[in-house]
Every structure is written in C-alpha cells, then in structure tokens.
Amino acid sequence: MEQEKLIKVRRELHQIPELGFKEYKTQKYLLDYIEKMPQSALTVETWETGIFVHVKGSVGAKTIGYRADIDGLPLVEETGYEFSSLHEGRMHACGHDLHMTIALGALTRLANDPAEDDVVFLFQPAEEGPGGAEPMLQSEQMEKFRPDVIFALHVAPDLPVGTVSSKPGLLFANTSELFIDFKGVGGHAAFPHLTHDMVVTASAFVTHLQQIVARRVDPLDSAVITVGKIESGTVQNIIAQAARLEGTIRTLSPEAMDKVKGEIEKVARGYEIANDCKVTIDYGANYHQVYNDGEQVRLFENIVKETPYQFQTANMAMTGEDFGYMLKELPGFMFWLGVDSESGLHQPGLKPKEEALEVGVDLVEKTLRGL
Ligand SMILES: CC(=O)N[C@@H](CCC[C@H](N)C(=O)O)C(=O)O
C-alpha cells in the first residue's frame, strides 16, 4: 500500500519539474502533502522555494539532518511515460522526483512515530544550478534547526534496485560552471578575410579546452571540461560577430580547479590576439567537492548490513553536488541508491525503477533512527 502511495507521489512530482529557485508548484505540492501528516512533532518553515521540516524526537539528544534536492533540468523528456512532464522543455532527468518522494515517505513514518533524536528534513532548491545548498546553510532557519550530522542520497541508474554504494572521503568532484563570450567582427559570408569569425574561433576554443585536459593536467590527476551548449550566428550567410560557450569544469581537488581555470584564461588571452576578438569568461556557480566522513559511512554500512539490501564501496565520480557545502560544515555523507535505468542521469530517457522508492524510504528512516 505504501509503495502505491509512493509511486503516485513520484509520478505527480515527475509531471511538474521546475528550474532552480523557481520550484513554486513543487514547494506547494510538498507543503500540501506535509500538512496532511500528523502535526504534533512537526515544525515547518519555508526558505526561498525550499522547506525545512523539524521533527521533535522523544529524547532529542542530537539532531540528524536529511537533505533532498527538488529542482528539475531544462531538457525535453523522451521516456514515453503516461505521466511525462507537463512543463515543456523541463524534466526530472536527475531523479530529484524520487529524492523528494523518498524524503516524504521517510518524513511520514517519522511524523507518525518520531525517532529518539530530533530530525530535520531539508527540501533544497536549485541543486542543478545556481546552487541552493550554500545559501540554505547560511539561512536563519538553518541556525535554528542546525543538525549535528547530515546525509543525502542520489539515484544511481547503473546500480540494481536494492544496492546502495558510498565511500569514505572524496565521492564527487569540485565543479565550476563555465561561460565564455566571444566578440569579433561579423560580415558577409563571401568575405571572411574582412571579418573575425566567432563561429570558427569558438569552435577551435572548444577543441583547445580538451587539449588543456589532455596536456596541462597531471595524467595521474583528473579533470573534465564539458561544453554543453554553443550559441552563435543568425543566418547561414552572415559571418557571426559573437559566440557563447556554456560548460562545466570538474576536478578532484580545489587546486586542480585553480590550475585548469588559469590555463583557460591563458588560452583566452592567446585567442584574443590570434583572432582579433574579445573573450570574456564567467565561472557562474562553483560547488565544493562531496567529501564523506569516514565514521558516518561506516555507521551507514552497518545499518545497511542489518537490512536485506546490499552495500557496495563506490568509486569517485566527476558529478558535482552542492551538498558538498553542507558536508564542508557538518559531518555526514552521501550515498548512491540503485534505480536500474538503461538511460543515465541527464538523459531524456531516464526511467528509474519505482521499486527503489521503498528501498530509499526504508534506508533513510533506518539511518535517521540509527546514526
Ligand atoms: C548530481 C548532478 O548531476 N549534479 C550536477 C551539478 C551541476 C552543477 C553546475 N550546474 C555545473 O554544471 O557545474 C552535475 O552536473 O554534476
């Protein structure tokens, strides 16, 4: 019965994906749902488009925090689901619909039967960008409900349902968004020598970025530079006077991030000279690496061992998560929850198995009661 309810909630949330700090319908959905739970142990406060829910424990010796991110992505869904996104060009393609549903499921159980410790649920906006964790951490509500320990999960399409994974130490990368604007001289398609073509310049720059990864980063270290969007030009026979690249940088240390950024800036200065153009770089949102507390991961592994589910040691991944900011200030950890989907994260066909919802609720509840 609980599984049916969880599936219904997940599907309803799946239909209303919203971008960072615009999660108005999502926030309302969550608040309406929380309002129907037994209220005696709950204190609910909103922050921007997010929500804090404090659950008073029977003893209250400490406070355990659990964070669920709530935003969607700008992507056209291709799952063929009957319950596909109702918001054009928006999709829950990173599983935050499941993250929220699992949080609501665990919260329902605790509202009905509080833990010994106090618990705080953080429904956090804008994980995909521009980052809700850092400002949420600085909020007055966080000061009021501040947890002693905090954890979060992320769906893992490559793991079977019933398997979770994590590791002590570094789990996810340092990230920085990357926006590069090129401004040159456009003109007639037939007279390239009288212009400084920003399509050609920006295209060469994309390739050069990969040269930085391959030739400027220590091969025993790792970095990723991905350009996910290119914008330029107006029509096929006008040489473009402007171009814009939008991407992201991933590294395994803050130092490597500084190094990569320094190299990008050097290349940009060279391109300005060689291509008679102006290159402007903006790093947008930067996320601190996700660094798990070893002791908390060990406690979690022991909790999983008491269940029918499997724990695996995770590998590091170049994904980013602004939850890293929370782990910078508070002991805690993040873990992957197996959802077994052929399509991966940020793909338009992502179809997580809904049986994973109950696994998530069980493990979050047990961890909130067991840390
Ligand atoms: C789990 C996940 O997929 N997170 C995102 C975080 C994006 C941060 C930022 N917008 C950036 O692109 O650098 C990810 O893409 O890893």
From TrEMBL:
The Mn(2+) ion enhances activity. Signal peptide: none annotated. Its EC number is 3.5.1.47. It catalyses: N-acetyl-(2S,6S)-2,6-diaminopimelate + H2O = (2S,6S)-2,6-diaminopimelate + acetate. GO terms for biological process: diaminopimelate biosynthetic process; lysine biosynthetic process via diaminopimelate. Mn(2+) binds at residues 94, 96, 128, 154, 346. Pfam families: M20_dimer, Peptidase_M20. Pathway: Amino-acid biosynthesis; L-lysine biosynthesis via DAP pathway; LL-2,6-diaminopimelate from (S)-tetrahydrodipicolinate (acetylase route): step 3/3. Residues 180-269 form the Peptidase M20 dimerisation domain. GO terms for molecular function: metal ion binding; N-acetyldiaminopimelate deacetylase activity. Keywords: Amino-acid biosynthesis, Diaminopimelate biosynthesis, Hydrolase, Lysine biosynthesis, Manganese, Metal-binding. Its cofactor is Mn(2+). The active site is at residues 69, 128. Catalyzes the conversion of N-acetyl-diaminopimelate to diaminopimelate and acetate. Belongs to the peptidase M20A family. N-acetyldiaminopimelate deacetylase subfamily. This is N-acetyldiaminopimelate deacetylase. It comes from Halobacillus dabanensis. The lineage of its organism: Bacteria, Bacillati, Bacillota, Bacilli, Bacillales.
